[in-house]
Amino acid sequence: MPAAAAEAEEEVEAATALSAEHYVTILDEATLLTWIDKLKQAPLFAFDTETDSLDNISANMVGLSFAVEPGVAAYVPVAHDYLDAPDQIPRERVLTLLKPLLEDEKVLKVGQNLKYDRGILANYDIELRGIAFDTMLESYILDSVAGRHDMDSLSDRWLKHKTITFEEIAGKGKNQLTFNQIALEEAGRYAAEDADVTLQLHLKMWPKLQQHEGPLNIFQHIEMPLVPVLSRVERNGVKIDPAVLHAHSQEIAQRLVELEQRAHEIAGEAFNLSSTKQLQTILFEKQGIKPLKKTPGGAPSTSEEVLEELALDYPLPKVILEYRGLAKLKSTYTDKLPLMINPKTGRVHTSYHQAVTATGRLSSTDPNLQNIPVRNEEGRRIRQAFIAPEDYVIVSADYSQIELRIMAHLSRDKGLLTAFAEGKDIHRATAAEVFGLPLDSVSSEQRRSAKAINFGLIYGMSAFGLARQLNIPRKEAQKYMDLYFERYPGVLEYMERTRAQAKEQGMLKRWMAVDSICRISSPAMALVVPARSVRRLTPRCRGRLRILSSGR
After folding, report:
1. Do strands 131-134 and 109-111 pair parallel, antiparallel, or not at all (unpaired)?
2. What is the pLDDT of residue 317?
3. Does 408 lie in the same domain as 375?
4. How far is CA 101 from the centre of its chain?
5. Which segments of the chain have a pLDDT < 70?
6. In a domain, 125, yes or no
7. Are 27 and 16 in contact (CB under 8 A)?
8. Could you tell me if residue 335 is left (phi over 0), alpha (psi between -120 and 50 degrees) or otherwise beta?
9. What keywords would UniProt list here (predicted)?
């Protein structure tokens, strides 16, 4: 972020209340040019785009709004085409005039979810530069557990102002209008308010963020620079081979039939494997299995967690779990992904979200490309459908044991620190410590067990969970855990301190975070919070994403 950005908010004072009195809708070029001069002279301006779709790859721009100071905003319509709509400056002309301003790195901009607006402008060969602030990300860094970081929620929280909602001007359901169909009188107020609220939100949140060095560093050097990178990654999309997915879908369908038949054989009768009620009847009434947990409504639970535990002792839950997993793969990936190929680009375009998870991780939707299974053959085959263009290759890269490195840093355990400092394979080193063997005598099976211990324990895994993951008796799993903590006492001390703090205060402060995780409800959660406390860690993550974003 340019150094001047830190001074921008000092030259603009926030309004005490929002008013539409000084909102204008620009319909002539002379007024637009006057506003462009205002924008050039402003230390910082807010802007927003209005479109006819939430999919920024296919959306058409309908208008743009700007705010140069609190309460002073304008809307430039370019494509409202309802009956008797007034004449508007042609979109091509508006964008020609605005392009130098929007691409000027020295002219600082603030927006709400600017990644979307950047994508829209890219549709018209405009590369948005000078992205200094994003109010969605400011809110997220200040309080990632607040739940919602959309503009309407932020306006209510920070400005005590109820915004005009899209549904209020466009309607709901199947009769909802697209923005190009909304009358300019309503559209102008709505769009100008968006820009005005965005500017005022920034003026409220930015001083708060500046008070915290760690989070400020994350915002300036990780989150904001990540916006254009993610935008390019989304726009590039991923290339998939639909034939591979189609063939795999047919194989899964056949396997589902076989699993259904097997389930019927075990149950002694036919039933709908997708029916929770029928499954409850079969498992807990006819087979006499004791329920482990109840739903909020009081019925015996058939959740994945419950079935996994039951599958240790009964065959039917194991079959049901496999059936559910394959059915989800089929509906979510092998059947759906080919339908999501964009006809213009021939690729699948996901959306990445920086301000959704409380832990700081990225998430993705439409489709979720971060949750494709990798530990089973079916999931690996789905990944094989992701292909590189001709003369290109797909490169896979990941941080090396990052959670354990963070644990070593936080706990200051000498054993872990030494292992990393000496460049040892940490899982092999742990296996050697736990099993009392020389490093070169550790088997692949022992290393696998040590890996499960290393990652499981820092997330609060119990002896039962470890036993289930390694398929060993619970007593043996407990023995592994005891040996682990004997070899790495600093880790145990850190975990006990964390639990004690959570119990005493009911909350935990995250590393380099403004906000605290409150309402710690269990000892396990007390460990999960610090284990996930690193957001995106270092700007090197941006380097990895740039590899993806620069490809074809």
Report:
1. parallel
2. 93
3. no
4. 31
5. 1-17, 375, 507-552
6. yes
7. no
8. alpha
9. DNA damage, DNA repair, DNA replication, DNA-binding, DNA-directed DNA polymerase, Nucleotidyltransferase, Transferase
